[in-house]
Amino acid sequence: MNCTIPFSGFYESSHDSQLDDTLSQMFSDESGEPIDDIVSDAFDSIDWRIVHLAYAQAYCSALADECEATWKYVKLDSPREYNFRSDEIDVEIASDELQRMYSAVDKVDLAAMIERRLAPRSGFIPFYSNDVTQWGQLSKWESAQISLLVECYCNQYCDAESRAWELIDDCNGQITAMLESAIPADKLQSLYARAESAL
Hints:
The chain is mostly helical. The chain has helices spanning about 15-25, 35-45, 50-65, 95-105, 105-115, 145-155, 160-165, 175-180, 185-195, and strands at about 1-5, 70-75, 90. The chain has one domain (about 1-185). It has nine helices and three strands. It has a three-stranded antiparallel sheet. The radius of gyration is 20 Å and the shape is elongated.
């Protein structure tokens, strides 16, 4: 089955902030202050699609490890505009793994999440009942329903704030490598040379 994993996307999110902060640190002066004109030039030189794809794949793997789950990265689904939704990471999960996750998830928490998320309200008429007992067998659930199960399962291992700030960081240079790989090599060399001469 295909579904999404919990991910807050790149639009004005902590993930976006981490990318920006790392880029500023890459081109900073001796006191750690970003060299604004170089950072701006670097920002404009980056192919952000490459960065976001690499970040999404790393996040997908890190979340699976953190939550002791098994799934396969499928794609990063980014909207053309961020008016109504943000980026989503699609994965494929085997039916036996879904059954294991369903068996392990706290059923009270799952029922409460579904009741809250799918409660009818002004401007929102849910496609599914907000009573999980009416959903039937797990094998009949659709992608959106499975995504809620996966999110509730992940919440037991790693809350939303931890997912946002702790799964991917630059302690091992991981984000720096993503950014560097998305800048043409000659441009990257020039940017680092400018930063070095500004010290």
